Every structure is written in structure tokens, then in C-alpha cells.
UniProtKB/TrEMBL annotation:
Organism: Parnassius mnemosyne
Single GO MF descriptor: calcium channel activity
Family annotation (Pfam families): Cg6151-P
GO biological process: endocytosis
Gene Ontology CC, one term: presynaptic membrane
Ranges in coiled-coil conformation: none
Family: Belongs to the calcium channel flower family.
InterPro entries in the cross-refs: TVP18/Ca-channel_flower
Organism ancestry: Eukaryota, Metazoa, Ecdysozoa, Arthropoda, Hexapoda
Domain of life: Eukaryota
Lipid bilayer topology: Multi-pass membrane protein
Protein name, as recorded: Calcium channel flower
Length: 182
């Protein structure tokens, strides 16, 4: 079962800690989601069918996330490695949309249950981490200053490059545009 070393081209600009945060949150969160789904299934005893369906969905979503993030936990199922490899080749925004889509239905079915918020919330947070990974790194301060100067001078059009509008390590500036004193 190959795993952490299998990187594809789109992951070059993502910090190592964010990659492991996404994988770790998905793995641990899916176990928690399965356990919280079992707790939601106790809605059967209170005749709350929507919470029962939300619990079943949550357990299924937790299993799917485990299959995608940690196939070593499901090595006894034949097709797990194939599915995991297929998910690993997808762009980060696909994973983010998939995990957020898996996490939302239990909220609509059983909104007031704490186990729904906790279990599906962690799968949702995994999708958010993958969404942040899809955005990539921030642009440098020099790139942003150059872009702003070009726009103010009227020499160019705003760029639609995905990483052209974020600034890293910017010094605080007052309303007048002057740096704030320390």
C-alpha cells in the first residue's frame, strides 16, 4: 500500500505540514464520524428517522474518507487501493468539493444533534483544508507591489492568475498608505 511519497505535479507548492494535516484530519475525523454516526443512529429509539438516516450517511461518509485517505485501514477490501490511487490523482479542489459534499447532508437531516456537528464537521474541515491547499501559496510582497503599481498607473488589466492577489508578510499600513510606526 503506497501512500505518502506518491505526489503528483500539482502538489509541489503545498507545504508538507498542510499535506499531512489534510491526511491526518481526514483519517482521524473519519473514525470520529463513524462513531458519531453510530450515536446518531440512536435516533431510531426516539423515533427520529431523519437522525437515523443522517447517522447512516455519516458512517458511510466516514468509511469513504478512510478509503480515500488511509487505505491501509481497509486493506482487506480488494478495490480500496484502486479507489485511493484514483482520488490521489485528482486535484485538491476536487477532493475539497467531494468531502464538503459528503459532510453537508447530515446537517440538513439532523441539525440539532451534537454528534452530527462533531462528526460531519470534521469531514467538512478536511474539505476546507483541501480547499486551502487548492488555493496554493500567497504571492510575495514584491509581486503584489508590482501588480498594484501597474494597475494604479493604468498600464495593465487586473490579472486573473489564481495566486496573483494574495500577499504574504505584509507590513501594516495606515489609511493614508503610510507604514504604521512600531
Amino acid at each position: 500500500m503506497s501512500r505518502p511519497g506518491g505526489d503528483n505535479v500539482q502538489k509541489d507548492d503545498v507545504p508538507w505540514w498542510m499535506r499531512y494535516a489534510g491526511r491526518g484530519l481526514g483519517t482521524v475525523g473519519s473514525f470520529i464520524a463513524i462513531f458519531a454516526g453510530i450515536i446518531n443512529c440512536t435516533g431510531l429509539f426516539t423515533l427520529n428517522v431523519s437522525c437515523l438516516i443522517a447517522g447512516i450517511w455519516q458512517m458511510l461518509a466516514g468509511f469513504i474518507v478512510i478509503v480515500c485517505e488511509a487505505p491501509c485501514c481497509c486493506f482487506f477490501i480488494d478495490y480500496v487501493q484502486v479507489l485511493s490511487d484514483k482520488m490521489e490523482t485528482r486535484p485538491y479542489w476536487n477532493k475539497a468539493a467531494f468531502y464538503v459534499g459528503l459532510a453537508l447532508p447530515p446537517f440538513f437531516l439532523c441539525f440539532l444533534s451534537l454528534s452530527t456537528w462533531f462528526g460531519s464537521g470534521i469531514i467538512f474541515a478536511t474539505g476546507v483544508v483541501y480547499g486551502m491547499m487548492a488555493l496554493g501559496r500567497k504571492a510575495s510582497v514584491e509581486e503584489m507591489r508590482t501588480s498594484a503599481a501597474t494597475l494604479e498607473a493604468g498600464l495593465g488589466q487586473p490579472t486573473t492568475a489564481p495566486r496573483a492577489n494574495l500577499v504574504a508578510n505584509e507590513q501594516p499600513v495606515s489609511f493614508t498608505g503610510l507604514p504604521l510606526p512600531n
